[in-house]
Design goal:
Distance between the termini: 25 Å
Number of helices: 9
Shape: elongated
Strand order of the largest sheet: 1-2
Strand content: 5-15%
Radius of gyration: 23 Å
Largest sheet: 2 strands, antiparallel
Helix content: 55-70%
Amino acid sequence: MPESPADDLRLTTTSYAILTQLALRPWSPYQLVQQRVRYFRYAWPAAESAIYREVKRLAEIGLAAGREESTGKRSRTVYSITDDGLEALRGWLETPVTPFALEFEAMIRLFAVPIGSTEQIVTTLNQVRADAQEMLGFAAEVRGEFIDGRNPLQEQIYVRALAVDFFVSLLLTVDSWAARSLEAIRRWDDLSLEERNRRGLEIITSLPLAEPGAGSDAPTLPPATQERRR
């Protein structure tokens, strides 16, 4: 297989996220940051400063090209993807995806409950619900833009619809989980440790999972994912 322009350039997922945006249309660094705030911060929360640095680096290594534009008395650099950038992006799409990972601080705090207080985890879960509902509000705005035909990426609606579906499904799941957890936690003070554990076992038993070794119906990982996790 011939070497890709991305070989030895140490491109990151942030690099490819920016190239993905540039493949759609040219953007200024400020516009790229706004798009990250609107979309990628939920899937790949790179710092805004990293985007400014990375788009310049992509231009330095030939995967993006910048041109100066004037808007009134001010000028700005607008970046577009190069042929080498497109080749690098297409090469990345041929590689196995990194296994799904969830960065969720509230879960770490939940594990710390035995050395904390009920009030602390209640506060955390209330914040989780508020954040999920705020993001659902954003998703409703994006849906409205597409329905009205005024989204900046209207021509990508067939793809963006799948992304919105994922985020809404995930956020509804998180919000529902936090609500159920709050309901269970509010009963803790009236229960012995033995009773809390009994109810916890009921929750675990009711989860819709196949038993280990249940045969063909048991969930399995794709071969590529199994190999990367060894």
